[in-house]
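From the pipeline queue, job 12 of 40. The input is one protein chain; the requested action is below.

Action: predict structure.
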Amino acid sequence: MSRLEGRTDRGSRTIAATPEDVYAALVEGERLEAWLPPEGMTGRLEHFDPRPGGGFRMVLTYLDPTDAPGKTSDAQDVVDVEFADLVPGETVVQRAVFDSEDPAYAGTMTMTWSLAPVDDGTEVVVTATDVPSGIDQAVHEIGIASSLANLAAYLERP
């Protein structure tokens, strides 16, 4: 399968929290680990360095890998993420590389998290560019929406 250069996947959601609170959830390891894994997965950080040029390694494990084989192994996706840019309360830019021997998952995907204040909280827009061709677009956008729902639930809890 060939890589689709320039493919972009997106998701967005308004979250009842300040841009500063959303930003903190994106750059604090324990918080990120709590909400980032999409539905049907658990996540574990192997390391976390929240600064430009730093990053993290996350191991995502499928609760049921039967219908969704992982990129790294049958049950897991392992991703190395570099923080390319951090603008407090506004933007987090991540460069993600999947640990996979399958060339369909090769390359660096850029994930940009844009935060904008709105009347009822923060509009969070996620834009994924240069998405590897092995990642189904519809499934990826469902995963982005799931992570955004998790983020909202995490930040909006009483």
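Job complete. The first strand starts at residue 8 and ends at 15.
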